[in-house]
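User: What would this chain look like folded?
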Amino acid sequence: MEDKKLEIEEIVEAAEAAAETPVVEEAPVAEPVVEAVPEVIESMDDYAAEIEASLKRVAVGDVLTGTIIGVTEDTVMVDLKYYSQGVIARADYTNDTEHSLAELAIVGDTVTATVVRRDDGEGNIVLSCKEAMEKMAWDKMEAALEEGTAMTVKISGIVKAGVVAMVDGIRAFIPASKLDVAYVENTEEWLGREVAVRPITVDREAKKLVLSAKELARERLNEEKSRKVAGCAVGTVTEGTVESIQTYGAFVRLENGVSGLLHISQVSEKRLKSLKGVLEVGQKVTVKITSVENGKLSLSMKAAAEPEVKEEVVEEESVEYISGESATTGLGALLAGLKF
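Assistant: Here's the prediction, encoded as structure tokens.
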């Protein structure tokens, strides 16, 4: 009994000691803070361009622009932002036979082509770059005709009554009468030359393009003449060559290339009724420029032949003063410098 009593007392003492010991609570472990990511809500506006492109109606003859997404040995595939992709056969892409299609058509490049067929049987739109280039070339020529735009072309061939040149893939004709200011007899000399032209006939349906270099050549000639005329000074005596003889006078080409009118009244001191037997074409003459007005020169052989009137300067006879004598001049000395 005594042993049980001691055991009970020990248990009670242990319990009381435990009750007096403070309990230390462990701090809770903090959980990582995860920031909330705003939810991206896409709307129809984000795909407006793609939707509009996919819904547009494609017709034969339309000119479309897309991105090359694939190239095979004989076909170019194009992304048109449409429900169908475009395909271009090699023959419709280029005339180049020396290089592979992969060398000519680069994935990622932009290409412009005309719709040839809406469906090739496999859901693809059949395109042609060559037709697009031709259509844009005719558009350009029509605008140039309306606006009078000039362009430079290279003569690539000689044909009856003129020459031909290529303009953005279009074969153009230049008549011999429109190749220069005057009619060109020997067109062979123009092969390979570059000339400035303007379109004068543009017929898309008949595929007829006619160019002219005449007007631009005349404009350049007039500008050059105006520049040379501006350099001619009234009173200048110069040499010239008789170009033509008319009833009212002759046209003389000066050494600087400018022509002027030598009126019949300015050929000689004598009154002439005709220049026959007086002047002839090719004759060298000396003329004086008497007038420059409105880009035209007036010339005179008569004025060129007149001697220049020079004022005669009479020097006064110096008088020597001698110290102690009066300064005098005799009558002979006064009359010595006078002419009668």
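The chain has eight helices and 15 strands. If you want, I can go into more detail on any region.
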